[in-house]
# Entry
Amino acid sequence: MARNVLKTNNTIVLVPILSSASAFQTTPTEANVYSVVQGSSFEVALPHDQLKQVGTQGLVGNELIAQPDINLQISYLPEPSFFNDKKTFFSVYPAGSTAGYHNPSVLSGKLEQATNFYFLSSPYESEDAQKTFTTSGSCASIDLNGWECVAFGNCHLTNYSLNYSVGALPEVSTSMICSNMKFEQITGKDLQSVAINLDSGNNKEVGNQKFYYQEAVFSPMILNPTSTGSVVTMENLQVGGQPLGGVHCIQSVSLDVSLNRMSSYGLGNDYAYNREIQLPANGSVAVSSLVSGFEYGPNSLTGFISGILNNEESYDFEFLFKKTNSAGGDGVARYTVEDAKLAAYSYSTVVNDVMLFDASFTFEITEEKGLRMSGASPY
# Structure
């Protein structure tokens, strides 16, 4: 049936397989399917300069003064192989592959990483876009004639967050700033890449994007924080209060990474030629817990906050997801946070309810430390 409205089952998301950190490639590129996508949105703001002059009420000019940037958001469910993360912006290492030594930071070798995204939509309302790819198989040339594409070029990650809680599956949300976007109807098995050569400000000699994939996770192992072996490992606070080490009553966890970027412009070029990360990147963790009791501070008998100014401690956290499939294979995904500082905490209670504890922490991320991710899939 011809499509009257675009539904989520009609669209599939692809990312190119790049040979370098640049999104602009002069040779044809293959693709990977972005996995377990839950939602997406994008917005464009066009910066105008409204000019007036003495002697008139109206404007003498309402000029577009810069090439607009595109803000793209994509959310997805994490899975043990960290497929989406390692195929785009983060360094992720196999669980257990570096026993006795720390895996590198997520930013190791990724400071200049950019990529492109292609949202491909079937012209048929009743057609599942994913089925077209699974039927064709990996590395098969797929004829997408008549399909529509919304493409985003030169995408740089600006924010990454992981959120999960009791009764809800973990979800990753990402935000990106992009230099280019285009709507296009596909007339064959590929189309010209959406990437811009940011040095020259054009797409001359850009390669084509092929529409067949090398890898995809179509049937992922869904991580559940209540599965046996999934644990939140934290340390008791220096100031005392609700215990966070050992057995605890944590209700929700959120991890946020903010990558502040400096966009550099030059005369004679419409586009930012660089979007350099301002290190260190800023990380934060927020935790909400039921209050089971109070622990005294490790360095005092009373848990006083007094004295923390002269001897503040830092904390290491680990968020581990583990799930076993029907064949007995384990899927493991691990986030490790280092040297976090307590930023704020609070207690609250109301009549006929339980007492709640909320705490937030901040930490820095560089190419060497701060946040590490490792995973392994049983498939």
About this structure: The two ends are 36 Å apart (CA to CA). The mean pLDDT is 86.
